[in-house]
Each structure stands twice: as structure tokens, then as C-alpha cells.
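TASK: fixed-backbone design
INPUT:
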């Protein structure tokens, strides 16, 4: 994979920051339809948020989408709430139905970034006809490839204040005093689900569940792996290049 430093290139047809043409020129008609996949801690959410802002398209994450549907009281939102209240996984048909409603909204007409969707082969197989019905198609699936040791470092480094709930990271966002919250002076601790054994198990489960999905998109020439380690701007440039290739 080639390395591109400096300002990230933008996918074909996408506006660069502040670039909407000269006086009297109409803004370019631009569309981008991509999915970002990657394990917990890979950084796909951060990149999706920034690139969605740059490209002027919505970042659509499954969890946020379902919570919005629940808050809006839609039929699918009420159905999803039944499972969420029980701590159960929301079935694929409900997730896909909510995704169809979300993609039909006006802000997704010129494109979208799917953040962590699809997560199963069933969702992937349902996405294609769903998009076809909306007159769209997926252009690229960007997979964030990060070594397990780095994912463990990122995910196990979180520390949370017992008193106010503020979150820190021992490497990337440490408190001023070790073990003490900057905000309220409370004790910082590591949550049980941030422990190394729990995180390692989550990563193994993700890898096992995702392997068929990666094969699915590789067979359709849509999969574009990017290295998810390094400087944020460098990773962003690689993503833009991957989308161009797609």
C-alpha cells in the first residue's frame, strides 16, 4: 500500500474542504456510499465522523440509528426496544428495516458512511437489494486492519472515575495525577469489561464473526483494507485512496 502524507486526497467527485467552485458556479453534484468495518478500537468511528463532516454525508452507526428510532417511537424503533430492554441482540430484519428507513431520509440522498454495518452476512445480503430499491449501490467497503496487540493497548487503557464517570486513557489521554480524576478528584478504575481477558475474548469473537463478511466483500471486489495504525491524517489519506480505488 502506498503512503500518502500531507493533506488527504478526496475521493473522485467529492468536494475538498472549502472547495465549492468560484463565484456563480453551482456546487458539484457528489455522491459517496461506503461502509467502514473494523474491530472494536480500530478507530473507524473517529474517521467516519471526520470524513462524514468533510464529505457532507451522514455517518450512520447501527447503535445510534436504533436509539434514534426508539426515541422517535417508530414501529421498528418499538420493535428494537423490546430486544434492547432485554439486553438481547436486535434481529437482522429489524436492523435492516431501520437502516432502510434511515437511508431513505433526505440527508442520505447524496451518500453515506455506514459505520460498522453490515455486521453479518444476512445484513450484507439484505443491503444490496435495499440500496437498489433506493437507486443506490455500495461503492467500497473499507476494513480497518489493526494488530491485536495494538487493539488491546487501546481498549485496556481506559480508566473511568468512580465518582463522576469521566473517562481517561493511560496512554492517549492520561490524568494529571495517576489514578486521580482531573475533574472531581475521584478514584479512577478499570471497568471489568475493559480487562485484558474480556477484551481479548471480544476481539476473537469479532474476528470469527467478521471473517465470512470480509470474504463476501472480497469476492465482490469491494473490500479495501487500510492500515489502522499510525498518524490520524495518514490513515485518513489511506482511506481516501481506498475509496478512490473502490
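OUTPUT:
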Amino acid at each position: 500500500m502506498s503512503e500518502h502524507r500531507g493533506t488527504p486526497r478526496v475521493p473522485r467527485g467529492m468536494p475538498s474542504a472549502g472547495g465549492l467552485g468560484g463565484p456563480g458556479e453551482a456546487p458539484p453534484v457528489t455522491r459517496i456510499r461506503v461502509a467502514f468495518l473494523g474491530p472494536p478500537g480500530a478507530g473507524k468511528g473517529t474517521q467516519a465522523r471526520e470524513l462524514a463532516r468533510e464529505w457532507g454525508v451522514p455517518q450512520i452507526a447501527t447503535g445510534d440509528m436504533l436509539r434514534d428510532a426508539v426515541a422517535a417511537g417508530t414501529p421498528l424503533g418499538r420493535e428494537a426496544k423490546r430486544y434492547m430492554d432485554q439486553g438481547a441482540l436486535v434481529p437482522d430484519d429489524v436492523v435492516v428495516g431501520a437502516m432502510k428507513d434511515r437511508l431513505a431520509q433526505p440527508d442520505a440522498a447524496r451518500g453515506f458512511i455506514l459505520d460498522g454495518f453490515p455486521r453479518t452476512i444476512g445484513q450484507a445480503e439484505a443491503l444490496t437489494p435495499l440500496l437498489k430499491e433506493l437507486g443506490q449501490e455500495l461503492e467500497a467497503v473499507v476494513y480497518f486492519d489493526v494488530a491485536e496487540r495494538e487493539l488491546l493497548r487501546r481498549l485496556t487503557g481506559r480508566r473511568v472515575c468512580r465518582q463522576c464517570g469521566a473517562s481517561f486513557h493511560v496512554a492517549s489521554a492520561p490524568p494529571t495525577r495517576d489514578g486521580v480524576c482531573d475533574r472531581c478528584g475521584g478514584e479512577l478504575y478499570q471497568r471489568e469489561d475493559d480487562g485484558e481477558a474480556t477484551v481479548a475474548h471480544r476481539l476473537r469473537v469479532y474476528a470469527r464473526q467478521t471473517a465470512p463478511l470480509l470474504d463476501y466483500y472480497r469476492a465482490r471486489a469491494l473490500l479495501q483494507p487500510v492500515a489502522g495504525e499510525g498518524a490520524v491524517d495518514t490513515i485518513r489519506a489511506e482511506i481516501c485512496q481506498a475509496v478512490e480505488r473502490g
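COMMENT: The chain has eight helices and eight strands.
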